[in-house]
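Tutorial handout. Part one gives the primary structure; part two gives the three-dimensional structure as tokens.
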Amino acid sequence: MNVELKKRSNLILGVLFFGWIVSYIDRTAISLALISIGKDLSLSATELGFVLSAFFFGYAAMQIPGGWLTDKYGTIKLLVGAVIFWSVFTAFTGLAWSLTSLLLIRFLFGIGEGGYPAASTKAISIYFQKEQRTKAQSTMMSSNMIGGAIAPIICAPLLLVMDWRNVFFLISGLGIIFVIALLWSTKNAQTFISEERKENKEKGSFRKVLKNTYLMRVLLVFFFINIANWGLISWMPTYLMQVHGLDLKKVGFISAIPAIFGMIGMIISGRIISKLGGRSKYGVIFGAVVLAVCLYLMSTAASAALAITYQSIAFIFVSFMASFIFTTPHRVVNQHNVGTAFGIVNFGGQAAGIISPTIMGYLINVSGGSFKTSFIFLAIMCVIAAVIAVTLPVNHQQQTNIKSVEGYEL
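Part two.
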């Protein structure tokens, strides 16, 4: 790749990175506003759990269709459409007047955001050469952690100075900035697309992707890991405020600390996985066990500082597991099917968000406001993920042999 093409690739990567940050800000703002929304609309913890889960119903439901649509109709169209759609419903969140309206709005918001992951992953396969995709993908996905750090820093102060409804109106404008940047950065980028079409003359099959047993096992690992991840992310602000007595402003800044550790872990892990390939499964197993231990310790933490310390350690290992999962499609399917493969794997992870916040809310309710039982539940999910990860192929050679078993051209 010459210097000019490399510059264009990195520019597009930067825009995709920004798009992920926007999506993360838009989706996590509701966790910070949860107490205000509950008071305004007179919602219980269980009902607020339903609200958090409504997003994941839409988000998970769109993963596989989003991947298929990306492979069939093109990356740029899906990216632009997805961001405009979710930005509209970010603004509509501020118009909610009841539990029913909020559930519907957050479901449709999830549909919009659900088209972005597969489309952005497919963009990596188009604008980067094969040997660069794992690093580029892990770098792009580190934006999730940065988004997790930025969201509370931006949204918490806004929630202190304006009504929660106005915060959603304001942040909805970020999507328009992304669309403009994307169209500008990909203008006249046909050189990349032409090269990739030459590299992948033979189109893949959606049916073959569904038959890939390696992907299905990775999907299950992601499902159980994300039960823990989304349960923790969704309820952590409320936990810090209700259990450790922090105010919203302090929660906003302290919540950024684990995300920073996770971001660093994501970037580094991409380099490690690029070298180790399938053998990285050992890191996934170890990471799941460490996450389980940290979640249990958080349930008994005597202070907010101790809870954040455990969460920071956990996020380092969460980032390694996420990097392994998110780069899997680039390593086990042909380029044409990357969008579909990512959508299938990500469906497993995001389907977890449908049940996790609701179960957390229920356990908090029946425990009289205690978070201990819910944290132990999340820890158990991590142990299950570790057991499934044991069944993944041991080394890179075994992983690449999926070609002969599943009929893929890698």
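Part three, for discussion. The CA atoms of residues 18 and 178 lie 7 Å apart. Confidence is low (pLDDT under 50) at residues 192-202, 396-410.
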